[in-house]
Each structure stands twice: as structure tokens, then as C-alpha cells.
Amino acid sequence: MNLLEIQRRMAEDVRRPLTPDFEMQQETESGASTKELAASYIAPNALLTSFERLEIYNRQYWFRLIDAVSDDFPALNAMLGAKRFNSLVPAYIRENPSTSWTLRDLSSKLPEWLTRHPEFTGKRHLLAIDIARLEWAYVEAYDRKKIAPLGAEDIQELGPDARIALQPHIQLLELRYPVDELVMAVHRAAPETDIVSNAAMAKKQRNRIPLPPMRRTPIFLAVHRFDDQVYYRRVECEAYRMLSALRNGSSISDAIEIAFSGSDFAEAHLAMKVQEYFTHAAQLGWFCRALELQS
Q: What pTM, to 2 d.p., does this model score?
């Protein structure tokens, strides 16, 4: 084999999924012996065979990917337990392998992927999806950019047909469970360096974090960044609809109409609510000019 062929051979062998016991597979998909393949381009040493030397790279490649995903979903890990979670993550990665130079985006498809794989979540499937959605929203809120915000005085100068945008870092979620309580409980209970599973690498048994009981109670959340910290803010259904409509490009007047469509608010109460929603959002710097978002 020339150098390019060796590189391609090793890349394929290193990326091959591990066994359920986190060991290198004995055979390839075509039935070839991985021991023979390893011996064809890796020399043994006094301590390790060619297969064992290759297995080190194979395992470390997968452990790094597993840890990258685990880092993003500590609450999902805590809710499902180590056994289920450490079966879920490799299965997800096998279907959604890393295709980017950065591991930041590796977890991006997990919430949607989880909806199609109830076998990993059992009876708490919908709860698990809500947790995954919120934890990925945390990543997005932390990483996405912030644009110069509009102040309350700027918004007052705008007419009803004007369009304003939301900060790119704001994530709006409609959830079936109050999982913000669960996620915050996990973060409070576990040090930042101890919220990943690492079970594949070290197979450590950690004490289970006590989780608050979850009863199905729909909530609406705005996940946002303020002073480099991510916060979860519950909002009313009408505020969620209004903010979502603004994000989707509706004018101010149309967004308000969408928000309160079908509601039985008295006109005076409705005006008070609109003022409340816009005031709070402006104070938190959630609004920006639509043209700046496009630039």
C-alpha cells in the first residue's frame, strides 16, 4: 500500500463502530478479519499486537465523539440513566456521523432523531424529547451571535407595519413538560466537569442525581443569552406566539393579531399585555433591526 491507501485504510478502520462492550469489531462489514487488516499496515510492538494498537485509536475516536454529544445532554443522561444513554449516543452517531471540522454541530440532529427512536427512551419518550430540545437550545443560545439591540425608545418610534427581528441567540420552545426545572436541577447538582457520561471511557458508576417529578404541563420558553450567561425564561402563550410571528417576518400589527387570535382579552387588558411583552423583551435586548439580521 502507498501512503494514501494506508491513510484511507486507517481512517476507515478507526471510524468503524465499536461493539456494545466498546471494543473494536473482529470483522468488517464485508466479513474481513480486522486483525489481518491491522497486521497489513501496523507493526506490533513488545507489548501490543497490531490489532490492539489499532483498537486504541478506534476506541479513542469513538469515546471523543460520545463525550462530545454527552457534554451537550447532561439532563437527558440523568433522566434516562447511564445504561440507556450510553446505548443511545453511539446509535445516534452511527446514523449521524461527524461531517464538520468542529464537533460543535455533532449533536444538532439528536432532538429530531430521538423522535424516531422511542426504543431508547421507553415510557418517557415525550419527556426525553423535550429535555433534548431544551438542552440543544442551550447550545444554540450560548453560541449564536448577538446584534445591537433595539431599545424601548426605538420600538416606540416604529409604526404598526414595521418589522423587527429577534436576536439570533434566542430560542423559542413550546414544551409538553416543565423540563426547565429538571435541566436546572441537573446543572445545580453536578459540577461542570462532571456532567458528561464518560461511561464508555471510564465505566464509572456515579450517584444518580435526584430529579424533580415531571407531570405533563405545557410551557413556553425563551432561551436567551445575557452577559454571556444562558437563561430560561417562561413566557405566556400569547407572548410566545407574538415573538414567533416576529421571528417569522410578520409586521408588529400582524404579530399582535396572531398572538391574541381567539383570545377573550378585553381591549384594555390586551393593550396592557402587548405593552408588557414588548417592554420586557426590549429590556432584555431581544429585539434588533431586521436589516441588520440579514447583513
A: 0.86
